[in-house]
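Hi all, posting the design record for the shared folder.

TITLE: backbone redesign
STEP: 1 of 1
STRUCTURE INPUT:
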């Protein structure tokens, strides 16, 4: 009797430890992962680079069209690369929605 319970216990442990691992690997498409990473980078860059000269702007205070112009004048001030410019833009526009 004891052995049956032990076997059931051990195999349920094995199932529980294997199942989440294999499904999370299968469910992570590369493009979605890098977009989320870039968005997180944009947020970090925004929070670190955009409060040096003035207070941190409120992303929801401007429309996505206004942000195009703002980023075109602010990205050079903050010395962002083209990529960083894009990530910060994607981030501030995502906050609006
Ligand atoms: C080197 C200094 C400097 C840095 C760095 C800087 N800004 Fe600015 N920012 C300014 C100045 C000066 C103004 C006001 C004059 C102007 O509009 O050009 C301004 C104005 C703004 C405004 C108001 C624009 C408006 O039309 O009301 C926003 C929004 C803004 N900045 C966002 C940002 C963001 C986002 C970043 C980071 C990518 C950033 N700024 C980095 C100097 C800076």
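Okay, here is what came back for every position:
SEQUENCE:
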């Amino acid at each position: 009797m004891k052995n049956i319970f032990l076997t059931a216990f051990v195999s349920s442990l094995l199932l529980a430890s294997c199942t989440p691992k294999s499904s999370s690997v299968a469910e992570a498409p590369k493009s979605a992962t890098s977009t989320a990473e870039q968005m997180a980078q944009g947020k970090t860059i925004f929070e670190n680079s955009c409060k040096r000269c003035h207070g941190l702007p409120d992303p929801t205070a401007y429309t996505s069209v206004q942000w195009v112009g703002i980023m075109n004048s602010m990205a050079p001030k903050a010395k962002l690369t083209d990529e960083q410019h894009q990530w910060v833009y994607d981030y501030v526009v995502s906050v609006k929605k």
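COMMENT: The pocket of heme C is lined by residues 49-50, 52-54, 57, 70, 73-75, 77-78, 80, 88 (CB under 6 Å).
Let me know if anyone wants the other runs.
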